[in-house]
Write a structure and sequence with these properties.
Largest sheet: none
Structural class: mainly alpha
CATH architecture of the domain at 30-99: Up-down Bundle
Radius of gyration: 14 Å
Bound molecules: flavin-adenine dinucleotide
Number of strands: 0
Strand content: under 5%
CATH superfamily of the domain at 30-99: ERV/ALR sulfhydryl oxidase domain
CATH class of the domain at 30-99: Mainly Alpha
CATH topology of the domain at 30-99: Four Helix Bundle (Hemerythrin (Met), subunit A)
Shape: globular
Distance between the termini: 37 Å
Order of helices and strands: HHHHH
Length: 106
């Protein structure tokens, strides 16, 4: 079985990659579906404390589904809140598309 950290890093990889490939101009249906996705995800995420905290986060910071940029930035901030809670460094959200879509420029 996956432990909490391995489940976490694999789940973040999936979530950030999904946000990276979300449409720039989503339809109303895509916006509603993405909002629903995160709410349902938070009910079934198989780490109880993580799922409970995520449900609270979604209440005060609902998914921003208007564009790829908005969704990716929203998810980056959400992940940073978890990073802070766990004593991990904050990620620079300006770099989120490089990390999860385009690859590093060097
Ligand atoms: P992770 O935090 O897993 O990050 C993986 C990679 O994502 C990093 O290497 C980095 O390149 C990149 N990254 C880091 N921050 C960002 C960001 N802000 N935006 C974009 N990319 C970024 N663990 C707990 O112990 N308690 C919890 O309550 C908890 N809640 C969680 C809730 C959710 C929804 C998820 C998906 C995971 C949760 N976890 C929780 C697990 C925790 O967040 C980490 O996944 C785990 O501790 C492993 O950390 P890591 O150092 O491998 O990096």
């Amino acid at each position: 079985p996956l432990d909490k950290d391995e489940l976490g890093s694999k789940s973040w990889a999936f979530l950030h990659t999904m946000a990276a490939y979300y449409p720039d101009k989503p339809s109303e249906e895509q916006k509603a579906d993405m909002n629903n996705f995160f709410h349902i995800f938070s009910k079934f995420y198989p780490c109880n404390i993580c799922a409970k905290d995520l449900q609270e986060q979604l209440k005060y910071s609902p998914p921003e589904t208007d564009s790829q940029e908005k969704l990716s930035q929203w998810l980056c901030k959400l992940h940073n809140e978890v990073n802070t809670k766990l004593g991990k460094p904050e990620f620079d959200c300006k770099l989120v598309n490089q990390r999860w879509r385009d690859g590093w420029l060097d």
